Amino acid sequence: MKLNGKQFARRFAATGVPLVMMLSLTMCSESALDLQPLGTLTDQTFYNTAKDFDAATLAPYSTMLNLTYDQGGRGWWNTWLLPDDDIQPRNPNTANDVFNWTSTSDDISWVWQTAYTGIGRANIILVQLPKAQGLSDAQKPRYEAEAKYMRAWWYFILARGYGNVPIVTDVPSSVDQTQVSMSKPGEVWDLIESDLKTAAANLPASFPNEKGRATKGAAQALLGKVQLFRAQWFKTPAKYQEAITNLSAAMAGPYSLTANYADNFDESKENNSESLFELQAANGDDINSWGTSDTGGNAGHAWTIIVSPSCSPIPPGDCAPKANGEGYGTYEISASLANEFEPNDPRMYYTMYSAGEDYGVRPTRRPGRAPDTPRPSTTGRGIRTASRTTGPRTTCASSASPT
Length: 403
Description:
Oligomer: single chain
Strand order of the largest sheet: 1-3
């Protein structure tokens, strides 16, 4: 049915709604409707209060968990530990073990990319902190110190592995700003020391309700370690005394050796008196063990699967219980490391297992076999991943917070 103008006006008026109201709605400006959705967080609205920065400082810690993720390699084990003299792969021709590295190596690029991700997240905190209106001047130094500790932690990894790496201390706002040249010799080491001195001066001795955050003692100890590297690598003897000063200051903190060395490998005794800085993870079975928290998974690390007992390469090739399900036996203790232990050293048992030794009690065993007894590896030694009192062994899922 068609309506002419008069008919439309009469029909509309019959509804009791004034025509002028409809006309006024159509005359609203577009700017009045172009509003930011309520509840949206941006860099103008989020980085403002102590609660905001408590949350923001968790991001660099999460990145640390990504570095230690090793289900398929390309992390701390394959890049940093494998080439040393303490462990060895079953395959003697493994590229990283024989220093056969290339610019396209996934392991090498993973550490590089992860490190700069962590640095970038620390830089965001440092850039936003001076603008925060919801923080007092007395509150800001702690967040600056925590961010600088984490930035130094990452640059220390890069400096040891890659040399004079590019230094990024800001948040790039354009592609051109990401094109950073290599630093000059010593510059990155100077930045690391500077950041750690700020951290040591402003971090608290502890976070009683938030285990895992960097503390004064952690900063002092890492600073001393950095200075030891500089003293030895660059032949600067004065750095030895600086290292002694900072390491002594760390030792004067709330730290001591545990009565039982095995406590350091018991998940029920984590963050004990020997712990200076400890990455936090949560136990879990129902996790995505093929990804990191930044790649869609919920996994912190799966190194227990990588190193737990598997099948012997020596005929008849007996397999440990749950081999290839909870143990790949990829890496083994080298003979040179085993020989470093003195006879009857009680630490040896909690560091490695020997062929035929009781590996620990599990609730599920292969029928007909008593306690877990790993068969010989190529070296006769394997890496022990848990204390002998542990029950079911699981991979670890990264927590959303370092607590």
